[in-house]
Structure formats: C-alpha cells, structure tokens
C-alpha cells in the first residue's frame, strides 16, 4: 500500500517537474513581464524570422522573410524546419569551410534574403541562433531531425521541363504568387529583384521541387505529382533573379563592359 | 546673470521656484539676434559632421546605428531648444564608451535586453543630471580642474583608438575590460585573424586623414571616411562579400518619430541598482563636458550663457532620450567649435542640424548602406588621435596641474573611464583644498610688538600653522591683522579667542584687527 502511494506521489512529482521543464511557447514568453537574456533573444529571433524586414531590415535586400521558406516560423517538418542546431558545426560544400550556426545564418542573409552579410556578433545573428536553439530543444545532437530540410523526390524517368512547368505555374501558383511571379500580399516573390538570388539554396531544381511537392500549394500539400513539382521548379529556376553575390558586383560590371566593347564571346569566356 | 539670480533666490522660496522655472522654460530671446543664413549653413555642416560620428558612437555603445542618429536628432534638438547658447549637443565619445562598458557585463551586446538596459541607464543619467541642476551643481564644476579634463580627454583618445583596433583589423570584438589588453591581443593575434581587406580599408582611412589634416583641419575626418569608404567599396565590389569578408554598415531604417517607452521591470531596476555609480560617473562626465564648453562660450562669445540652464537642458534631453529610442549624450567640443567657425551664434543652428540629420540620413541611405565598418573604425582611430592632440598642453607646465593630469590619465588608462572620472574629481578637489588651506603669514616686528598679516582662508583645516606660531611665544605682544582674510570660520574665530585669553593669563597680549 505505502509503496504504491510512494510511486504515485513520485509519478505526480515527475510529471509536474517535466511540465515545468517543457519548452514555453513564444506566446507565453511574450506575455511574461520579465525575460532573461536568452529568452529575450528567442523572442527577438522569432520576430526576425516572422517579420525579417521589420526586425532585421539592416541586413536584408529582398521582400522575403525567413518564414517565406522556413514555413510557419521554421516549425514545419519537410519545410526547411529550423530545429537543426544539433547539426552544426559542419562542413558544407557551398563555401568549402566548416560552418558554425552563426555562419549558416549569415549565409541566409547574403543569399536567400539577397542582403548584406551581418557580422557573426551582430544582435540579429545571435537572436536567430537563440531561436534555432530554442526550436531544437529535445533533438539528438549530430542527428538530422524528423522531416529535416525537404524530401528528395524519386527519379520520375523524365527530365524537368520548364515549358510544362509554366502550365503548372499558371494553374496552381498564380493565385497567390501573382501572374508574373513577383508575389502578392498573400505570398512572397519567386523571382525578380525582390526575391532570393542565384546563390541561394532554393536556386536548385531538385531542392525546390522537393519543397514545392511537400508544401505547395499552401493548404493542398502533396497535391502535385513529383513530375509536376520538378517541372514547375525548373520553370522558376530559369527566371531572372539577382546574381550570385560571390562574384563581386564591380567585377561583374567590368566583365560586362569588357565584353560589350571588345565583343568577347560569352560562351567562350564562361567555358574558360 | 546666473549669479544674481541665485543670490536673489536665496531670499525667498517663491523667488527660488521662480528662478528655477525661468531656467526650465525655453527662452527664445535669441530669435532677434539670429542671422538666419549663417545659422542655416552651420546647421547643415553640423548635420554632415555628426552623421559619421553618430554611427561610430552607436557602435561604441553597442546599439544599432539608427540609435546614434536618433541621439543626434532628439538629444541635440531638446538640448538646443531648452538651452541658451550655440552649444551643440548629441552623441558623445566618452559618454558612449561609458554606456557600452557599463552595460556589456549584464547583457549580450545589441540584444533586446542590452538595449533596454541602455535606455534605463540613459533615463537614470538624465534624472541624476536634473538632480544636479536642482542642487545647483553647475557651480561645482568650476572646481573641476582643466588639467583633469585634459587627462580625461587624452584617456578617452586612447580608449577610442583601442575600440577601433578590432574593427580596423577586421577581427571579431575582443571584449576585454581594459583598453591596453586590446593592443596586446591585436599584436599577438594579427597574423591569424586580421583581414587584409579590412586592414587596407582602415589604413587608407587613417593615412589619408593624417595627410589631409593640415590642409582641412575641420573636414579631414569626413574626407578620410570618403576615401577609406571608396577603397573599401572597391575591394568589396571586385572580390565580393565572401572573399573580402568586409563588414558593411547595412540599411538604415530611420523613423521620423521613433517613440518608445523604456521598460522598467525588476531586471532593469536591479541593473540600475548595480550600476548606479556608473550612471553617476556618466552624468558627471556628460555635464563636465557640456559645462566646460558652456563656460568657454560664456567667456568668449556670449556673456548671457546660463550654466544652470544648460545643465537643465542636458538633463531633460538625456532623460527623454529613451522615449525616442536613443541613449544619453552631452555637449560636443568639436561640433560646437565647427558651428562657431561657420558663424552660428544661437541655438538655431543646433535645431537646424538636428532636423537636417534626418533628411540627410534619408537621402544618403543607399550610399551609407555600403559604408565599410573598417573605414568607420579608421575614423575612430583618427578622432582618438585628434582628441589626444587637440589639447592645451601649456596647462601642464605647472607641477600641480601636471600631477592632476598624470593621475587622471593613468586612472583612465589602467582602471577604466568611470574610475578615472572619480579620480579626476577627487584629485581636483584635493589640490583645490590644498591650495585653499594655504595661509600666508607675513610677520614683521616693531620693537617689542609683533605684527602678523594674514592672507587666504582661515578655517579648521588651515588654522594649525597660525595657532602653533601664536602658542610658541605666549608672552609676546602681537597684532593679528585679519583685514585681508577672505573667509574666517567659527572654529578659527574660537581658537583665536582662546589663544587671546591664554595670553592674557600668561601676561602676553593679542590684538585683533578685524576685517
């Protein structure tokens, strides 16, 4: 008898302590009168992710927000979820060095937001890092979480075709992204000067196709076939967008002027 | 004007309150003598000058660059509106460094909590300054030795150079408490972590500044920033952001009226409790700089400058700063002297400069976005060198002044700015007391009779020598001439009376010539 009551009391204590340990929601944090440094950074990071141009406007260059790709503030599995703090630092082929979480976030500002790379110590990077850590609570360190990044689509046996993709785009995407793909109040621009640049991770047919298939059109996820997702991704891929900032703007301009004056063969110089 | 006001206010409480009210209300008497064209030009030049400074000082404080510009706009505007002189207020080197150094142990640099602490601290600084105004503290700043101010300025110059070191080398911030550690770290670690693109940019800024300084002593900082920025933007444009790793300023998202209410929850109050003495140091340092300029203006330009009114204006501007999303500031030596040189004589130029900052920042935003931070670090080094050199070192020929300067400077350098300020105050007061308590005794003899003429102040601290002399020869007949004594307190009077009775008992005589 006494042993069972002891166990019951122990269970109640355990449950209540677990409840106390559970991660508070952002709304709960926002309603608190007093936040410590970490919590205030988490809230600030959440604000940056949701309204990037308002809270981190110093370093953005597009009308996109983090949550344009990291859906639902980075909480959507298979939608570039942000619960990935345990995967860093890691080597990435993109820049050929070992990336900490800070550098990874800075890269997003430079490529996906087509902005200016903030310094590692900037308040914005620190806040987003705090938010990523907050989302990663309970994840195994060094192991990709459930629904990591976007799904890789299987081979369909047919190459992605932008022409077919245009038809898919007109049918399924224009309602929110606009007929010209430059975005509306409901959805972000997919190309044009206000979208991500050619150095971004989504400027990649396979990755974009996985994202589109798993998450688009919003509310009718996975309604497109694998082939349709690949086609529309190819269509979006070939549109004009800001160029890859890894090549300096001045050098790009000088090359353009050189070619226009001396009539350099474009295919020749790019094959070099 | 201020002195007869305080004399009259000593009579009745009503007159006292009326005097305070007159200081607290803006006085537009200067409108009649304002030369609109001159004030306009000098205001515009002041706005151009303050923009790079404001961005630099925001960096020193550890807040976004917009906040520095808000400081130039709102703190400058309120200080000029309530002030009585051409004195230009706004962001200030020493105040910014001190705020940053005070808050950094309590929150991550630039984080939301950090900014709340900066706001709370600025509010407290403003309130302390208003308290100093109520207690007629401006009178006390007369005793702040000029040598101590030179010591603080040279020390701040070193701190400024130190705070530019990491930015100029393109390293991440060191976060050392003592400035001199940074030089060591920079030398020890430069080959691992210095960024050559950043070094080229800052070197172009610093070298062009040093070369241009002789020809354009006022505008050289802006020219150097321009040259350094062009070099930096060129490198950035050719190599790109990834290869150059140059840090840029980024977009300025300026609001016309960035109204906020500073948070004063328990963490902020606890923070203020911990940092009260730092707030006091910031308040004293800010007022010291403001009032030194005001005193200078009173002596050279406009005898109507009211030190108490300037104290009030600075206090209100700083207390209101957090409500406009910015931090505390003070009067600025270099911007006031530029305004004077451009012909400004009234607060109008400061008001125009404050408004012009907003317009210019909006207009230049696309260019300012690509301003390389190493060029701004180079400007910090240049301003630091300027602060160390633009001083009147003739002051230091006197041994006492040299000692005050050395002690203040060493304290700032080795113990930090806020300790340095208290050392400066203590040392100034110490030497002042030492010089006051020196009593001149000129002793002449006419036969049996001894005559002692006294100059200086006779009070409990300076009495010893006289009392010892008089008690040494109790049977003497002495005439004590107090007619040239500036001040004689009750303790001294009592002691002299006592010695008189002692002498009379022992057969001597003490005759006192009253003042």
Describe this structure in words.
- The complex is a heterodimer of chains A (272) and B (515).
- By secondary structure, chain A is an all-alpha fold.
- Chain A contains 14 helices and 2 strands, in the order ααααααββαααααααα.
- Chain A has a two-stranded antiparallel ribbon with strand order 1-2.
- In chain A, β1 and β2 (97-99) form a beta hairpin.
- In chain A, α3 (37-50) crosses α8, α7 (101-110) crosses α8 (123-135) and α11 (205-215) packs across α12 (226-237).
- Residues 267-272 of chain A have low confidence and may be disordered.
- By secondary structure, chain B is of the alpha/beta class.
- Chain B folds into 2 domains: 33-430, no CATH class; 439-513, Transcription Regulator spoIIAA, CATH 3.30.750.
- Helix content of chain B is 65%, strand content 7%.
- Chain B is elongated and about 100 Å long.
- The two termini of chain B are 28 Å apart.
- Residues 1-10 of chain B have low confidence and may be disordered.
- The A-B interface holds A 33-37, 40-41, 43-44, 57-60, 95, 110, 116-123, 126-127, 245-251, 253 and B 64-65, 107-114, 172-173, 234, 236-244, 247-248, 250-253, 265-267, 369, 373.
